[in-house]
């Protein structure tokens, strides 16, 4: 007997249930969704920051706690900075932000519950609406 399985938080959700189709969205809706996706994509920078901080302290220390604490501190500080900086970064260079989001989406096979296919469609729609 099989039951319907619930989606895990990391699984992409179907786009049709709660999101409007990309083709019917206006410029403001596309811009807002792209900005939100970019905000999540920027947080993927925390992974290399953590690895860099842990790698640097691993060369100096042998105790696990002393190696990991600076990495955790760097992640919290950078999270706070990136949380406040992603909107000005998007406003300063939206094309670059969209390209970065597309790169992260392709690299990770989607950003959170947004598939790479939807993000690519949003970027094409953004280009179309921006030219009008």
From TrEMBL:
Region (Disordered): 1-21
Assigned keywords, A-Z: Membrane, Transmembrane, Transmembrane helix
Membrane-crossing segments per the record: 37-57, 64-82
Transmembrane helix listed as a keyword: yes
Protein's name in the database: Uncharacterized protein
Organism: Blastopirellula marina
């Amino acid at each position: 007997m099989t039951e319907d399985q619930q989606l895990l938080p990391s699984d992409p959700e179907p786009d049709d249930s709660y999101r409007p189709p990309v083709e019917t969205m206006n410029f403001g809706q596309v811009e807002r969704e792209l900005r939100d996706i970019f905000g999540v994509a920027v947080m993927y920078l925390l992974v290399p920051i953590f690895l860099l901080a842990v790698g640097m302290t691993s060369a100096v220390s042998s105790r696990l706690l002393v190696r990991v604490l600076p990495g955790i501190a760097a992640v919290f500080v950078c999270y706070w900075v990136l949380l406040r900086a992603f909107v000005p970064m998007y406003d300063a260079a939206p094309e670059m932000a969209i390209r970065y989001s597309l790169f992260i989406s392709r690299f990770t096979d989607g950003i959170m519950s947004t598939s790479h296919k939807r993000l690519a469609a949003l970027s094409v729609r953004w280009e179309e609406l921006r030219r009008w």
